Amino acid sequence: MTANAKTVDVTPSTVRAPGRACRPSPSFFLFQERLARWKLDHLRQHAAELAERLEDAERRLSYADEQAEFWREQCMRLEEAITDEDSGSGRRIGLTLSGDLVVVGA
User: Fold this and answer.
1) For a designed S-S bond to 24, which of 28, 79, 89, 101 qualifies (C-beta 3.0 to 4.6 A apart)?
2) Backbone region of residue 95 per phi and psi (left: phi > 0; alpha: psi in -120 to 50; beta: other values)
3) Count of domains in the chain?
4) Residue 100 dihedral angles phi and psi, to the nearest 5°
5) What is the DSSP string of 26-55?
6) Residue 47: beta bridge partners?
7) 106 residues of the chain, pLDDT tens digit each
8) What distance in Å separates the CA atoms of residue 89 and residue 46, rounded to the nearest whole number?
9) Residue 30 falls inside a structural domain
């Protein structure tokens, strides 16, 4: 850079050209407004997508809870049936490492 070079300062409110000050053109402000609207529209769209994903996750959680409760009740009924039929046999329900339900003898 030479000693005679002048710097150019660009700010949102004014643009300084070497030796004189000027105002941004009206199209600059229109562009700013358009960009602000686009950002707002983009955020609204993103919020709507997130709300939809949340509703879907809540539906899946509710279904999983219902299924878990159903299977818990089934296991309790199975245990009651085994203990009622074989009161003195000592048979119980067991769970394998792979998740299978089995009847375990004494």
Assistant:
1) 28
2) beta
3) 1
4) -80, 140
5) HHHHHHHHHHHHHHHHHHHHHHHHHHHHHH
6) none
7) 455 656 555 555 555 556 566 777 888 889 999 999 999 999 999 999 999 999 999 999 999 999 999 988 888 888 777 776 656 666 777 778 887 777 777 6
8) 61
9) yes
